[in-house]
Amino acid sequence: RAGPVLLGKAVGPLAPTPRLCAPSGNSQLLVMLLGDSGVGKTCFLIQFKDGAFLSGAFIATVGIDFRNKVVTVDGMRVKLQIWDTAGQERFRSVTHAYYRDAQALLLLYDITNKASFDNIRAWLTEIHEYAQRDVVIMLLGNKADMSSERVIRSEDGETLAREYGVPFLETSAKTGMNVELAFLAIAKELKYRAGQSADEPSFQIRDYVESQKKRSSCCSFV
Ligand SMILES: Nc1nc2c(ncn2[C@@H]2O[C@H](COP(=O)(O)OP(=O)(O)OP(=O)(O)O)[C@@H](O)[C@H]2O)c(=O)[nH]1
């Protein structure tokens, strides 16, 4: 486990003193958000935790931050501790140290940013280097509400996810589309792996996600 790190969003020269602490406790499921800077990891977490969208100026995360949320999966309460990592290259060595404690990783790209999609392979290489071998990974194409600025087709995300054998969803941290589903799917998968899903002896996360997801083309966005 790495030592204390700087947490949160930097706000330039007037930044408040960052808090110093690290995620603790091991009775919960640890989920990490990964992906390039600006893909929407912090907004994704805030949308899940508080049902709100952080609009306004983009403030990059410094180091790593975390939030807790309890979800109910098949009538059982599951505690999620969700770590929001900094996407900027200069914080990579900090975040690498946390990979091995994570049981699930949500890997985000931005459907309006080709570089963030192209970098997914590099992220997966890092994940295989630093994370647990059996970590649950899900690929998320975020900002699906920005359809007029889309440069990555949904099929491209699906193809890449299939190549790596991971489930895929398009999401919007702005509208909330598929945000809760992503967390519920990994919670269900981890519960299933822990042998707590006797009622679902053959749970498949990819099939579950496919059956539950809302496609961006079907919905109107605010
Ligand atoms: N339209 C739209 N904008 C989004 C969405 N998610 C995030 N944004 C915007 O994208 C910008 C970056 O969002 P963040 O959540 O701070 O990005 P991040 O991935 O945490 O960035 P780092 O902290 O640098 O790693 C902000 O201006 C957000 O308002 C989304 O789903 N839709």
UniProtKB/TrEMBL annotation:
It is an enzyme of class 3 (hydrolase). InterPro entries: P-loop_NTPase, Small_GTP-bd, Small_GTPase. It holds the Pfam family Ras. Keywords: GTP-binding, Hydrolase, Lipoprotein, Magnesium, Metal-binding, Nucleotide-binding, Prenylation, Protein transport, Transport. It catalyses: GTP + H2O = GDP + phosphate + H(+). Its EC number is 3.6.5.2. Its cofactor is Mg(2+). Signal peptide: none annotated. GO terms for molecular function: G protein activity; GTP binding; metal ion binding. GO terms for biological process: protein transport. SUPFAM superfamilies: P-loop containing nucleoside triphosphate hydrolases. PANTHER family: PTHR47978. Belongs to the small GTPase superfamily. Rab family. This is small monomeric GTPase. The lineage of its organism: Eukaryota, Metazoa, Chordata, Craniata, Vertebrata.
